Amino acid sequence: MRNYLQGWIGLIILVGTIWPGGAIAEEIVEGKVIKINLTACSLKAGKPGRCEGTLQLETQREGEVTKREIVITRDVTLMLGKDKVFLPSLKGTFATITYIVKDGKNVATTVVAQKP
Q1: Least C-beta-crowded within 10 Å: which of 71, 78, 107, 116?
Q2: Domains in the chain, start-ordered, CATH in brackets?
Q3: C-alpha pair distances (Å), 50 with each of 36, 91, 102
Q4: Percent of the chain, pLDDT > 90?
Q5: pTM higher than 0.85
Q6: Which of 31, 29, 67, 69 is nearest to 53 (CA)?
């Protein structure tokens, strides 16, 4: 009986980690922000960083330049150094972005940028 239960528990854990909607792996990408598409922004004084839209990131890997679109939601605080900023402030910066793939789109979970 004990082996039977251990087998079922193992199967449940395995399915939970590989099934869509189970554990979601985050990925990290770095590159230059070359394009911004702002769709909405919370304009509260002293509380920047809550914007929606997309940004296009230009990355280089093994000499190959690629472009990647990242979706920005209001849940993500946008940082430029130690300061919270609005999405348009990121254009031209070097950004490190952590994201998940959701519904086929790269959705940011963290955005930290530095001036070039």
Answers
A1: 116
A2: 25-114 (2.40.50.140)
A3: 14, 16, 20
A4: 57
A5: no
A6: 69
